[in-house]
Amino acid sequence: IKNNENKLSNFLTFLFDNKIIYSNVFSYLIGDNWNSEKLNKVISILTEEKELMEEELIFLNVLNSKVITIENKYKFIRLNNKKISDINTISYNDEIWFYLMKENKIEPTRKNILSYFGKVHKECLSQELLNFICNPENKKNILKDFKKEEKNNDEKFTKLEETLINEYESYKRINDKFLD
């Protein structure tokens, strides 16, 4: 639970993993279904740290909690070093999804990109989605994932795939010109 720089960096993961031993503390601070009013205060204290190392399950519970303020969720997203493997495990909220994409806290998979595009920006590529796709770390994984998966027959997904390919090719040509 403690390291040199982050005193409480994985406090919720520790508490969750040991909830049998610390059942009273867990119940008091977190409550049923992660909806204790005290939990918002706990998150507020935790987000004073430089970095959080909470596991994905904890990350999901915090983001899906109804009592944690949007500001505390933003701080938690920014500070937590884990990524969400499936964006659909987070209750749909365009602000939270936008912030997760903007902060690069979602695994760069075809499913996540298509889900985001399908729910948040149905007709065009948004700046945060384009930045996410063009992020050097994400780009290789996304292209591999798109190539290996069979094309989905759904029109919005086919349209997105065509748009992504065209946008990527345009981006690459412009980028190559500036690098020459």
Question: What descriptors fit this protein?
Answer:
180 residues; mainly alpha
Can you give a write-up of this model?
The protein is an all-alpha fold and 180 residues long. It is 60% helix and 0% strand. The chain is built from 10 helices and no strands. Helix 3 runs parallel beside helix 5 (70-79). The termini are far apart.
Distinct helical segment count: 10
- How many strand segments? 0
Q: Label the structural class.
A: mainly alpha
Euclidean distance between termini CA atoms: 49 Å
Instruction: List low-confidence stretches.
Output: none
Rough shape?
Answer: elongated
Mean pLDDT: 79
Biggest sheet descriptor: none
Reading the helices and strands in chain order gives HHHHHHHHHH
In which range does the helix fraction lie? 55-70%
Radius of gyration: 19 Å
Strand content: under 5%
Summed up:
This protein is an all-alpha fold and 180 residues long. It is built from ten helices and no strands.
Secondary structure elements and pairings:
Elements: H1 11-17, H2 23-29, H3 37-46, H4 56-64, H5 70-79, H6 94-102, H7 110-119, H8 127-134, H9 136-148, H10 155-179
Helix pairs in contact: 3-5
